[in-house]
Design a protein that fits this description.
Elements (H helix, E strand, L loop, with lengths): L12 E8 L2 E8 L2 E5 L1 E4 L11 H6 L5 E4 H6 L3 H6 L3 H5 L5 E4 L2 H7 L1 E5 L4 E4 L6 E4 L1 H11 L3 E3 L11 H22 L7 E6 L5 H14 L4 E3 L8 H11 L9 E3 L5 H8 L5 E4 L1 H6 L3 E4 L2 E4 L19 H4 L3 H9 L3 H27 L3 H14 L3
Parallel strand pairs: 4-14, 5-6, 6-10, 10-11, 11-12, 12-13, 13-14
Antiparallel strand pairs: 1-2, 2-3, 7-8, 8-9, 15-16
Helix pairs in contact: 6-7, 7-8, 8-9, 13-14, 14-15
This protein binds 7-deaza-7-aminomethyl-guanine (PRF).
Length: 381
């Protein structure tokens, strides 16, 4: 079973192509297509990558999108999505989709939450109605959506937190991992369920969580509970503890991360997949990510600047529109301003990942990382 040569061509699996230090380049193979790793997954929370056409997201080089159990269960409802042919059909994205399980979004968005062994009950942030999310129901919803890669329900603790609190949440998450895996057996074989490593900022607890999940056995492992209030150095230290004990033949996904710098440093520590609202959300808040670092288009210094954000970019939004025009759109709160900057940012994130993959394949990842950081440090002059 674990011999890659004996796997069916269509079964979910990971192929490692090259390593450079701890950095890995490979591909996650799914029946809906191949995900080149390291990969950045644009966030399509409510069945849309805000401000972008699906075709446009694809053209930037995205192999996979992220969707959210929490949002889609509330609106338009998982059973309705299933009746409409599933999420791929509904949003016209025929490529792989990964869904988060909902627990993390309940914690950050819902009102009046109550955790128990059984699951979490909460009030919708939309209409205040009560809902329950158990490990079994989360998997059922992700199945109704038709997600290719699904997440177990977990409990993510915000940092700082006590060791007892972190330990309790990771134990509960391990029990939920078992229940999620059992519930997942009802689904088509070509889909995959990932376990989620928790354990906060405590190395011992991180190892306990990872070992517990490896015993249960998943086709991929997510690393959760990071980028939740701790310094970047702590996050990177936790990655250095966790990735060496994860199986080399399975993908590792760092959830909800991050900035370009977070991603390049996490790749250096063996992470394969990322998702984050940062490029899309920042784009709606006048912020551009470029080779020269972050540029805030709200700033008055752009008002008379006829230069594009990056004349050498392949992205029309970065290459062809003047900073003065982008500044004007942002100041007027025109929707095109948000759309163009979202496009710029997703293009930058995807080009960064493409550069990372090529550099690992050529054994020059460290040099690439240094060059990229030099560009950010030089700034926008
Ligand atoms: N768990 C889940 N989703 C997540 C996280 C987590 O810990 C995070 C933490 N960065 C983001 N999204 N299920």
């Amino acid at each position: 079973m674990n011999n890659p040569d004996r796997r069916e061509q269509t079964d979910f699996h990971y192929r490692l192509h090259a390593t450079d230090g701890a950095a890995r380049h490979g591909e996650v193979v799914t029946p809906r297509g191949v995900i080149r790793t390291p990969a950045f997954m644009p966030v399509g929370t409510a069945g849309t990558v805000k401000g972008m056409y699906p075709e446009q997201v694809r053209d930037l080089g995205a192999d996979i999108l992220l969707g959210n159990t929490y949002h889609l269960m509330l609106r338009p409802g998982a059973e309705r999505v299933a009746r409409l042919g599933g999420l791929h059909e509904l949003m016209r994205w025929p490529h792989p989709i990964l869904t988060d399980s909902g627990g993390f979004q309940v914690m950050s968005l819902a009102g009046l939450r109550k955790m128990s062994e059984k699951g979490v009950t909460f009030r919708s942030h939309i209409d205040g109605a009560y809902h329950e999310l158990t490990p079994e129901r989360s998997i059922e919803i992700q199945g109704l959506l038709g997600a290719d890669i699904q997440m177990q329900l977990d409990e993510c603790v915000r940092l700082p937190a006590s060791k007892d609190e972190i330990s309790r949440a990771l134990q509960l998450s391990l029990r939920w991992a078992e229940r999620s895996k059992k519930a997942f057996e009802a689904q088509p074989k070509e889909r995959a369920l990932f376990g989620i490593v928790q354990g906060g900022d405590d190395a011992e607890l991180r190892i306990e969580s990872a070992r517990g999940l490896i015993d249960i056995d998943f086709p991929g492992y997510s690393i959760g509970g990071l980028a939740v209030g701790e310094p970047q150095a702590v996050m990177l230290a936790m990655l250095e503890v966790v990735t060496p004990i994860l199986p080399v033949d399975k993908p590792r996904y760092l959830m909800g991360v991050g900035t370009p710098d977070d991603m390049i440093e996490s790749v250096a520590r063996g992470v394969d997949m990322f998702d984050c609202v940062m490029p899309t959300r920042a784009g709606r808040h006048a912020q551009a990510f470029t080779r020269f670092g972050k540029i805030n288009l709200k700033n008055a210094r752009h008002a008379d600047d006829p230069r594009p954000l990056d004349a050498e970019s392949d992205c029309p939004a970065a290459r062809d529109y003047s900073r003065a025009y982008l500044h004007h759109l942002v100041r007027c709160e025109e929707m095109l301003g948000s759309m163009l900057l979202t496009w710029v940012n997703l293009a930058y994130y995807q080009s960064l990942m493409a550069g990372i993959r090529a550099a690992i394949a050529q054994g020059r990842f460290e040099a690439f990382k240094a060059e990229v950081k030099e560009g950010w440090a030089r700034g926008d002059i």
